[in-house]
Design brief:
TIM Barrel; nine-stranded mixed β-sheet; three-stranded antiparallel β-sheet; 6 helices; globular; binds zinc ion
């Protein structure tokens, strides 16, 4: 089974999710299906196979991407869903995106990072390192080293199917001293949000950038300044309600918070299928 692109969607960057890059901006997300991980539930629908998903031809996609970029003017292009680097022909698409000067974010599962040809990612703008279970945690230090050789701009996305695994993963990251990159938590199933919030509150005393960007609660979803600890990007449900930043900097204390700033802040939910 080879990951294949199945849709191209314009969406809020916060729904990717990213927290320190282009917050409030727009992502052009290319979703791949046929993920080798085969989780029973997947927030990216990457577990679909080509019998049920409409597959886009990679060659056609590479040809059309330039006009799509021109029309939609996104802050960042995200290769998402099933690990796109497992498909060798994705190199053409990446080359085209580079020629168009698109900023590129690629989602990579920690467990699979060793198996992928990371050389085609030089230079890489943003890596979104996906964590699903303890297998990812075991290989994470090594996967992280491979990625950190290519970019310092890494964010985690942790998929949460149950509370106990979430607890293990968050503590595992903290005790291994791996929370030097922001952690974005996505709830795949309903978990006890109050219990999760109490873990996050404790971890945030040391590692501030731990978020649940799609949570309806502002406390869990909003971005905090690492110095004064004020909420500087108020978010809920993956959409920015208010920003207290001047560019990348905290409006209260002047500390740099964001790594990349969006061209404009969009305060409404966006989910537009463009291909
Ligand atoms: Zn501040």
């Amino acid at each position: 089974m080879m990951p294949a692109p199945a849709s191209v969607v314009l969406q809020n960057v916060d729904r990717v999710p990213l927290s320190l890059n282009y917050v409030g901006g727009i992502a052009l997300t290319i979703n791949f299906v046929e993920c080798p991980s085969q989780c029973t539930e997947c927030p990216w629908s990457a577990n679909l196979d080509r019998r049920v998903a409409k597959i886009l031809d990679l060659g056609v996609l590479s040809e059309r991407i330039q006009s799509i970029l021109h029309r939609s003017n996104p802050d960042v292009v995200v290769l998402h869903g099933a690990d796109p680097l497992l498909e060798p022909r994705v190199q053409d698409l990446i080359s085209t995106l580079r020629r168009c000067n698109a900023r590129l974010c690629i989602k990579i599962r920690a467990l699979l990072a060793e198996k992928e040809d990371l050389n085609i990612l030089n230079p890489l703008d943003i890596a979104l390192l996906e964590l699903v279970d303890e297998h990812d945690l075991e290989v994470l230090a090594h996967s992280l080293k491979l990625l950190e050789d290519r970019t310092s701009n890494i964010e985690y996305v942790l998929l949460v199917h149950d509370f106990n695994t979430a607890n293990t993963m968050i503590h595992g990251l903290a005790t291994r001293n791996l929370l030097r990159h922001p952690l974005n938590i996505v709830l795949v199933k309903d978990v006890n949000i109050l219990r999760l919030a109490s873990i996050i509150d404790k971890v945030r005393k040391t590692y501030i950038h731990v978020y649940v960007p799609l949570a309806p609660s502002t406390d869990l979803a909003s971005v905090q300044c690492p110095k004064c600890r004020m909420y500087v990007v108020l978010r809920r449900s993956g959409v920015v309600a208010k920003s207290r930043l001047k560019g990348a900097y905290c409006d209260y204390c002047g500390t740099q918070v964001l790594r990349n700033v969006a061209k404009r802040i969009v305060k409404v939910p966006i989910e537009e299928v463009v291909l």
